[in-house]
């Protein structure tokens, strides 16, 4: 059917189309594009105006795309730690004895005398000292340690009584003790760092409440006080300054034993042999107690109403309880740093 419809050959159909030839492009046929200055001049000539105009096209890419801005470098923030209140020294007042008049001021680091109150540390220290002070010497004899024969005291059966072995049985009088106490150690462990911190906390507590008096020298009684009147003189001194029993008693701390002070507190009382040995090292009366640095503990610092301590004894106590501090925070190193700052 298709061959019948198209009777003319395909070659004749193709020859009937007229080909359109485009002219070739060359420099002679193409018009030269006018620059921006030519376009602006043409515009001025057309409007008969000599006013300057802005160019239509601007080949400056900076006017289209803004130049990249350099990021501004922020200054580095350095961390400045807040001031430590424990680095500020405190000044204690040194007093004379027996007048207790102020003489001068002595600086001390706040890590030693301005610590906050820690009741938990004080409790642990007092319990540790109490456990260490227990003798634990109670001793009873077991049935194997009681003197006596091992013969059976009555037959096993036929008597109607309970079964018994030898006479050392705990059920008989004179026999051993079944579960009696034996010598043991009641001491409980406490880290040295914690104990030293508790010690300085007790001193700081007394100092913060105004209950610690620091003496410039040893508390020796004046020479004009006779040996027979030392007890009465010391009692009057304590009551006059409100340091006696009505106000909670006073603890005297010295670096060495002061015989005149010890005698004034002990008086002429007579004690038994064991009690006398104890009182030879401790001066104690109804109004006050005297101890050396080697005999005092945390409980003694907190027990009485006032603490009167010699400056040398205070330094000795503080230097002996610094295990929780760094070498630069200890008392001797701190004082060397203070001297360098003054120079």
TrEMBL record:
Keyword Cell membrane: no
Record region (Disordered): 1-39, 51-84, 131-178
GO cellular component: ribonucleoprotein complex; ribosome
Entry keyword annotation includes 4Fe-4S: no
Xref: InterPro entries: Ribosomal_uL4 (IPR002136), Ribosomal_uL4-like (IPR013005), Ribosomal_uL4_dom_sf (IPR023574)
Family: Belongs to the universal ribosomal protein uL4 family.
Listed name of the protein: Large ribosomal subunit protein uL4m
